């Protein structure tokens, strides 16, 4: 038979020989059988990534220019409010359920207590109002944390070298109230202060915002992978020290369970693990343990690694992007915050 001649290994001489070869291995279950064709691989596929799984983090800037590139995140730009509205409309048209805006705050507006965070007419509040008015169908998830607003780059207020917990919570609560008043659909506390979820929940309820959800950055690690984000919002140069007294130690896993448990007890509707791929074990463990809506944040450093390798021709960027995001679904995540969101959505749409 012609076809046998081109096989890379010596072909069996007859069907009988082939049967003999099989039985000599003694295999009753051949895992490769289900992988033999695309239709079969599709049929037995366990996890799927869809546009419904995507949350798109975007960067805002108060400038006349529509866009300015984030140097450490190729393909990502900071957007002014008009452009953010256009992008939100495009995201909605692509079927992306939600966006997560982050502000680059003018350095002159930053101070030790992050007071600009409480200005109800700050960049975030204006952007949220504009996006809500123009694109009411897209969800808006707003960070509660002070780092874009503080002169020292920490997520809370300080006494000397110490980041204060309860004093920071008091301010974060007011920040959350301002964002909810502006129209935020979800408040996402990313500050890792103790007790902030409960305090924010109580304040939102007191304001009649009982429908505003809380997505807690429940297990957020003190990670090197946030580097490019700090470039994007301009905190890299300003950050004094590191965040290890409030963000989690990368060595810990049981502690993540305790963090998630507390945030759920305090009223979190959804929990998040961050960073993403290096902490996939935490995503799987949290989902298995609590069975609640669980999200992962594919952070700026993860995005930058894929983009840098792809731009060097060392990785197929599209394939690495899709594989990395599918991994979150396989681990049990209900959705992923990813800077790839519009690119993935377009790719999924094209089929
Ligand atoms: C701020 C915040 C950070 C990120 C999201 N919210 C940075 C930090 O904690 O220093 C990181 C996101 C990313 O790296 O993509 N509280």
From TrEMBL:
GO terms for molecular function: porphobilinogen synthase activity; zinc ion binding. Keywords: Heme biosynthesis, Lyase, Magnesium, Metal-binding, Porphyrin biosynthesis. It holds the Pfam family ALAD. SMART domains: ALAD. GO terms for cellular component: cytosol. GO terms for biological process: protoporphyrinogen IX biosynthetic process. The active site is at residues 220, 274. Mg(2+) binds at residue 259. The keyword Cytoplasm does not apply. It catalyses: 2 5-aminolevulinate = porphobilinogen + 2 H2O + H(+). NCBIfam families: PRK09283.1. This is Delta-aminolevulinic acid dehydratase. The lineage of its organism: Bacteria, Pseudomonadati, Pseudomonadota, Alphaproteobacteria, Hyphomicrobiales.
């Amino acid at each position: 038979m012609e076809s046998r001649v081109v096989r890379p290994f010596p072909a069996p001489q007859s069907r009988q020989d082939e049967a003999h070869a099989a039985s000599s291995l003694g295999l009753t279950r051949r895992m490769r059988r289900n992988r033999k064709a695309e239709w079969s691989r599709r049929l037995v596929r366990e996890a799927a990534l869809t546009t419904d799984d995507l949350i798109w983090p975007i960067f805002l800037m108060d400038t006349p220019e529509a866009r300015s590139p984030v140097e450490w995140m190729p393909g990502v730009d900071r957007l002014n409010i008009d452009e953010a509205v256009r992008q939100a409309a495009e995201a909605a048209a692509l079927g992306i359920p939600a966006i997560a805006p982050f502000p680059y705050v003018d350095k002159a507006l930053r101070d030790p207590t992050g007071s600009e965070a409480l200005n109800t007419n700050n960049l975030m509040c204006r952007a949220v109002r504009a996006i809500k008015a123009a694109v009411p169908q897209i969800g808006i998830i707003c960070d509660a944390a002070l780092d874009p607003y503080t002169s020292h780059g920490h997520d809370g207020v300080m006494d000397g070298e110490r980041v204060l917990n309860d004093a920071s919570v008091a301010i974060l609560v007011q920040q959350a109230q301002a964002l909810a008043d502006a129209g935020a659909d979800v408040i996402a506390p990313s500050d890792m202060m103790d007790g902030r979820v409960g305090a924010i929940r109580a304040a939102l309820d007191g304001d009649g915002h009982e429908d505003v959800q809380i997505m807690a950055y429940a297990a957020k690690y003190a990670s090197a992978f946030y580097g490019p984000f700090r470039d994007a919002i301009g905190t890299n140069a300003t950050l004094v020290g590191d965040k290890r007294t409030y963000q989690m130690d990368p060595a810990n896993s049981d502690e993540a369970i305790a963090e998630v448990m507390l945030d759920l007890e305090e009223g979190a509707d959804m929990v998040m693990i961050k960073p993403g791929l290096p902490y996939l074990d935490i995503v799987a463990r949290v989902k298995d343990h609590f069975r609640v809506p669980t999200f992962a944040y594919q952070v700026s450093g993860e995005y930058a690694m894929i983009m840098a390798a792809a731009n060097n021709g060392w990785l197929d960027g599209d394939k690495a992007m899709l594989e990395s995001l599918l991994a979150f679904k396989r681990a049990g995540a209900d959705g992923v915050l990813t800077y790839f969101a519009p690119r993935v959505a377009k790719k999924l749409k094209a089929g």
